[in-house]
Design a protein that fits this description.
The chain is mainly alpha-helical and 99 residues long. The chain is 45% helix and 6% strand. It contains 3 helices and 2 strands; from the N terminus they run αβααβ. Strands 1-2 form a two-stranded antiparallel sheet. Helix 1 packs parallel to helix 3. The longest helix has 17 residues. The chain is elongated and about 50 Å long. The two termini are 28 Å apart.
Length: 99
């Protein structure tokens, strides 16, 4: 996972450097699309849900609605890596803004 994410981030940084950009930000639309992807394909049950002992990961037992977003990509790591590869291959940086 770390290797795949490093490749992905290096791709973004390389594009930014090659075009003299100083910032890389996701767009509001890109963020929302990813949240919807995770909610639709997520594994269900985020880290530190209400069944856990109150602590840091579940806000001392006060589970927030956004905890449902704190889950792995539901189709597994290979499908996630393929998703990243397809995104990079498209070359349009959908959901990302450089400046």
């Amino acid at each position: 996972m770390l290797d795949e994410l490093a490749i992905h981030i290096a791709h973004l940084i390389s594009h930014a450097r090659n075009h003299n950009f100083k910032r890389i930000e996701c767009t509001a639309e890109g963020e929302q699309a990813w949240v919807e992807t995770i909610l639709n394909k997520g594994t269900g049950g985020g880290l530190g849900d209400e069944s856990c002992t109150p602590g840091y990961y579940n806000n001392e037992g006060q589970v927030a609605a956004t905890f449902a977003q704190a889950v792995p990509y539901g189709e597994g790591p290979v499908a996630f890596f393929e998703l990243l590869q397809r995104w990079r291959a498209a070359g349009d940086f959908d959901g990302v803004e450089f400046s």
